[in-house]
Amino acid sequence: MKLLIKGGRIINPAENMDVVGDILIENGKIAAIGSSCPAAGAEIIDAAGLVVTPGLVDMHVHLREPGLEAKEDIASGTRAAAAGGFTTIACMPNTRPAIDSSIVVAGLTQRAKTEGVVKLKIIGALSKGLEGRELAEIGDMIESGAVAISDDGGHLDSTRLLKTGLEYTGMFGRPVITHSEDEGLANEGFMHEGAVSAVLGLKGRPAVAEDIAVARDIMLAEYANAPIHIAHVSSKGAVEIIRQAKQRGVKVTAEATPHHLTLTDEELRTFNTAFKVNPPLRSAEHVAALIDGLKDGTLDAIATDHAPHAFEEKDVEFRYAPSGFAGLETAVGVVLTGLYHTGKLTLPEIIAKLSYGPAKILGLDSGVLKVGAPADITIIDTEYKWAVDCIKFYTRGKHSPFESRNLKGKPLITIVNGSIIMQNGEVLK
Ligand code: DOR
């Protein structure tokens, strides 16, 4: 089968490519990229006025399988990913049981083949049962295909365990991903600590809790000479600590989320639980620092931290609601509206952080457009105007801080291994 994507603006960050041209797909692989490719016998996608990018990669997703399928599972989560323009996602291990053994990694990999519509990579737990006491079967999980190791969802208190985990994971050339918030300081806080939390009378999670944890985690990685990736960076101090560590040559990478890049704690004034997340939404100076960090390369990736919860779990009084919300289906629209249409980041910069950047961190061969490579491609209309409607999401998580917002920019087509799996918002598998 042949597919020709014709006349689109092709952005391929791995090669600094930004040209108008065609991409020919044959038998699931990219057969040619050029100013004009032969159309004979091919189904044609007219991409004039659209942006053609490597299939987007989200390195931070909670799929909730196994055990928490009321919130999400591989079938619903990978469909949400396809709707959002992602062709590869990596799922976090805070499931029940936790993804802490090679059996669970192998089982999920198998399930992804039958249930999934996009490519699924698995992140294994650092500690058994995510309890922070004993190392999980890190080597076995990596041999079974785990691409990184993390106790995400909470901070790993034990410096000893993180040090050993970094040393061990680093031997396989894989990163440990940390949720860096000092529990002693942040614990039981509901939102960013600052003027708004004081007015609302809600216990805060101070930015310094993140700064301290990021500094500690980076010091351990530096000592172990092992790769570390800091998840969902949200504080100005953390950005600066990561910047300095990179300058010293520490093997540190980091991500920011669409919500931390575009929203502030002012939103919490409504007590709407859709804005409750860890780390919390912070103040405008932190948001500005994150954008600077993306721009100067301190932050390598944009990742959603897609954290769906069942509707009734979030539909409770603010303090009782779980943290997190759906992110896969709004990410591209939010980032284009908040960062591209405002002139804060260029389109190639944004696409790099959503494809090549995260793929490189996880050691994947995706996130690039290359002749001979699997045809994982996303086609985006940067000018498409739409309003977020959570009820229409493919994810089971029907809460979003962007509910009812008008966004500009949307993925129109998602292609995995040369097959169109999403077109005009509809997932076809
Ligand atoms: O708000 C959050 N929810 N932050 C996390 O790090 C974990 C996530 C979840 O799993 O629900």
TrEMBL record:
Functional pathway: Pyrimidine metabolism; UMP biosynthesis via de novo pathway; (S)-dihydroorotate from bicarbonate: step 3/3
Function description: Catalyzes the reversible cyclization of carbamoyl aspartate to dihydroorotate.
NCBIfam families for this protein: pyrC_multi (TIGR00857)
Keywords assigned by UniProt, alphabetized: Hydrolase, Metal-binding, Pyrimidine biosynthesis, Zinc
Note accompanying the cofactor annotation: Binds 2 Zn(2+) ions per subunit.
Residues noted as binding Zn(2+) 1 in the record, renumbered to the chain: H60, H62, D152, D305
Catalytically driven reaction(s): (S)-dihydroorotate + H2O = N-carbamoyl-L-aspartate + H(+)
Protein name per Swiss-Prot or TrEMBL: Dihydroorotase
InterPro entries: DHOase, DHOase/Allantoinase_Hydrolase, DHOase_cat, Dihydroorotase_CS, Metal-dep_hydrolase_composite, Metal_Hydrolase
Sequence ranges assigned to domain Dihydroorotase catalytic in this UniProt record: 50-236
Active site: D305
Family, as annotated: Belongs to the metallo-dependent hydrolases superfamily. DHOase family. Class I DHOase subfamily.
Protein encoded by which gene: pyrC
Names of the cofactor(s): Zn(2+)
The keyword Transcription is assigned to this record: no
A Pfam family assignment: DHOase
List of residues binding Zn(2+) 2: D152, H179, H232
One term under GO cellular component: cytoplasm
Biological-process GO terms, alphabetical: 'de novo' UMP biosynthetic process; purine nucleobase catabolic process
Annotated EC: 3.5.2.3
Molecular function terms, GO-annotated: allantoinase activity; dihydroorotase activity; zinc ion binding
Superkingdom to which the source organism belongs: Bacteria
Residues binding substrate: H62, L63, R64, N94, N278, H309
CDD domains, alphabetized: DHOase_IIa
